[in-house]
Design goal:
Length: 475
């Protein structure tokens, strides 16, 4: 797999390698995000012990690790007579440090910790003995995000306070996926992001010479598709998620538009409090996130909360694959499903939230805002029976550090150009967010351009900005 866009992370590791003391770096992030590739690239040209753990016994881990140590140090005895304990392994590493710099990378460390609960204490003992040695570079890495945040870098972790640095690898944002889809149009690049998300492994599977429809069918819908079972593999890393079907039901409910906790609870048949606990677990894993109006001053205390699937690919899978699996047994079934269901609904799927999130990110960068997101709330309006409250929403809102609104935007992923009427609707909502008498800047984002009258307005009004998809893809 080509090495894309981790140059900052790689540079950070290289700079640490020149430290006058030992380095102990924790690298974690969800499955397929590129942790292993980063570590292997960093290890090139270095004396390195790289070990990727898997489900298995402590004895299995030590046998395999002894072989890796033998290969790195040239001491064949470690392979012929595998080390009997973790203490013996770290003692052997200590001896190897006397001969020069050594990188020790324990990847998928969560599997080691499950089989060896005392591993944290052994690492602490080893670190205390060698933390002054400039020859040591220790990396712990893995894809169980909640485990790492709780048991490796968290305050209650045995190894808390020992690490010298940490990297949390995220999926690529939309602005950084262009190399994977360089030959596709701006519209198809946005659609591709809505389908495949920003995980490098998923994006690297795309054949740029094929069409988006072909790649959806080949990789996601076909029974033998590379990503057909990927969400199951992702959740299977966490035993409690694998054994409780409610997690799948929650993700499916959110994908179907049930974004409030009471709606989700009703769909999965659990109490509100039980559903809340399940949602918290999914949030810890980085699969679900809370969404609140971006203008809220204290997000932790607001009750105005929605839940969203944090990864576009998971949202696509739980929208178009999981509910239809009983009819997707053959390739012919996948082809029919693509034409009759997926492509018929794809642009509606892309429109919200993916296109709106792309516009929000662009707006934040353009206005140098502290944050950007949605706003929603009750608005008093006049009606035939007098004033009444209606719920309104703004697709993209940029705010400063004091949550004052800098700019608002309307995002339309439709086949028709945007019109003056849509501008006026946005302007009326922008008036609700005036600060010190100044109305926010207005941005209109459109897949299909803008009506001539709207373009004339923009030429006459410096506070009005029209943004097409080509501008988003160039950002």
């Amino acid at each position: 797999m080509p090495f894309y866009d981790r140059t900052d992370e790689l540079q950070a590791l290289e700079e640490r390698r020149r430290s006058p003391r030992a380095e102990y770096v924790v690298i974690y992030g969800r499955r397929r995000v590129g942790k292993t590739e980063l570590i292997l690239r960093f290890a090139e040209g270095k004396r390195a012990v790289y070990f990727e753990a898997s489900a298995g016994s402590e004895r299995d881990h030590l046998d395999d690790l002894s072989g890796a140590l033998a290969q790195a140090t040239g001491r064949a005895l470690h392979a012929a007579q595998p080390l009997a304990s973790w203490r013996a392994f770290f003692a052997a590493v200590g001896e190897a440090l006397e001969e020069g710099p050594l990188l020790v990378a324990l990847d998928e460390f969560q599997f080691i910790a499950r089989e060896t609960p005392a591993i944290g204490s052994e690492i602490n003992r080893f670190w205390r003995a060698h933390r002054e040695s400039p020859n040591l570079f220790l990396i712990l890495s893995g894809s169980d995000v909640s485990f790492f945040e709780r048991d490796v870098v968290g305050y209650a972790a045995t190894t808390y306070g020992r690490r010298t640095g940490s990297l949390v690898l995220q999926a690529f944002p939309f602005a950084e996926i262009r190399p994977f889809v360089a030959k596709w149009s701006a519209q198809d690049a946005i659609r591709a992001y809505a389908v495949f998300g920003g995980v490098p492994y998923y994006l690297d599977a795309i054949d740029p010479k094929a069409t988006l429809a072909d790649e959806i069918e080949r990789h996601i819908l076909a029974p033998d598709g590379l990503l057909r079972e990927e969400p199951r593999f992702l959740l299977a890393q966490h035993s409690d998620l694998r054994e409780d079907g409610a997690y799948f039901s929650i993700l499916r409910a959110i994908a179907a538009g049930r974004t409030r906790r009471n709606e989700i609870a009703s769909r999965v048949g659990r109490s509100d409090s039980a559903t809340g606990q399940l949602l918290e677990r999914l949030i810890e894993m980085g699969l679900v996130r809370r969404v609140h109006p971006v203008t809220v001053a204290n997000p932790d205390r607001t009750r105005t909360v929605r839940y969203a699937i944090d990864d576009p690919f998971l949202r696509f899978w739980f929208t178009f694959v999981h509910p239809y699996e009983s009819r997707l047994h053959r390739r012919a079934d996948a082809h029919r499903h693509l034409r009759e269901v997926v492509l018929a609904r794809l642009d509606d799927f892309v429109s919200r939230p993916t296109f709106e999130q792309i516009c929000q990110s662009w707006l934040r960068a353009q206005t140098d805002a502290a944050a950007a997101g949605w706003w929603w709330g009750g608005v008093r309006e006049k009606g035939e029976r007098g004033p009444h409250t209606v719920q309104r929403e703004i697709d993209a809102v940029a705010v400063d550090h004091e949550r004052r609104v800098l700019a608002v935007g309307s995002c339309k992923w439709t086949a028709s150009p945007m019109t003056v009427e849509q501008l006026e609707a946005l302007r009326s909502l922008a008036a609700l967010h005036m600060s010190d008498g100044h109305e926010p800047q207005l941005y209109l984002f459109s897949r299909s351009g803008f009506a001539a009258k709207l373009k004339r307005r923009a030429r006459e009004d410096a506070s009005l900005h029209l943004v097409g998809v080509e501008s988003l893809i160039r950002a």
